[in-house]
Design a protein that fits this description.
Length: 287
């Protein structure tokens, strides 16, 4: 029986490409969803085995909605069982899809909010076009196909084929090595970790304690643990308080994971392990 994978749809999104990269087109039944939140909901209700969600972009930074949903479904509910088990990286090459033969004829252009910041240079040259948000880049292509002449989408080459919309301009992204990172979540799937792997952890510290964040991070420094990223999102529960997200390497040959987490947690108000997973080869530019 094939396992089910939820992803932000419709067919042709970059998240769809990430799902194909991770699971292929064989054993997995790929289930498109209208929103990122529905990907979490289906996984929580065990209607799918995995969910693939966008997490951050190399040009435009964190996908804020994904972080906030992780806070809602995993940080504030640490017993949910949802965990990150894999990561994927997709090269993002935006195309302008339209049935119009010239940009001067285009009045409205559609795309996902995350994409606008990745194509600002190209947009600067077309100030007359009204920008409209959509739930995904593939949905934008679908709308451009339905609306016809005078409408365009910023989307992928794959979405052009799926929705049968011609490509007028290719590679309109600001940065040519533009890449989005995706997380693969599961509730029950167990992965065999390599000797060296990434840990994703969320935590809070005492807001009024000077140096509280430094004290927590010092634990990793003292143990010679390499921190690869740190970011934060508003806690929502208290104004101007934050949930911090960190990622760091664990080398099973020298690092005792449980002890690292225990010592780190002693310096925090709360901490939640969001996942442990192998670094994707695509991080290093692999195919």
């Amino acid at each position: 029986m094939p396992f089910k994978v939820a992803y932000l749809g419709p067919e042709g999104t970059y998240t769809h490409q990430a799902a194909i990269q991770q699971f292929g087109n064989g054993d997995a039944e790929l289930v498109p969803q209208p929103t990122i939140k529905s990907c979490f909901s289906l996984l929580e209700d065990e209607e799918v085995d995995f969910s693939v969600v966008p997490f951050e972009n190399s040009t435009n930074g964190q996908v804020a909605l994904a972080y906030d949903l992780i806070c809602e479904w995993m940080v504030r509910n640490p017993n949910s069982g949802l965990r990150v088990v894999y990561e994927q990286f997709v090269a993002i090459h935006h195309c302008v899809l339209t049935h119009s033969t010239d940009m001067s004829k285009v009045k409205k252009i559609y795309t996902h909010p995350q994409a606008w910041g990745q194509v600002t240079n190209w947009l600067f040259n077309h100030p007359h076009i009204e920008k409209i948000d959509t739930s995904s880049t593939s949905k934008a292509a679908e709308i451009a196909a339905e609306m016809g002449d005078g409408h365009a989408a910023i989307s992928s080459e794959y979405a052009s084929k799926v929705h049968n919309v011609p490509i007028l301009h290719r590679n309109v992204e600001n940065v040519k090595d533009n890449t989005t990172r995706f997380l693969v979540l599961s509730k029950h799937h167990q992965v065999e970790l390599p000797q060296k792997y990434i840990t994703l952890l969320a935590f809070t510290v005492e807001h009024e304690d000077p140096g509280a964040l430094v004290k927590a991070l010092q634990v990793l420094t003292d143990k010679k643990i390499n921190l690869t990223s740190i970011t934060s999102r508003p806690s929502i529960e208290t104004p101007w308080h934050y949930i911090f997200f960190i990622e760091f390497w664990i080398d099973q040959e020298k690092d005792k994971f449980e002890q690292v987490v225990e010592d780190f947690s002693k310096q925090c108000l709360s901490s939640v392990i969001l996942g442990r997973f192998a670094r994707s080869e695509r991080y290093y530019g692999g195919n």
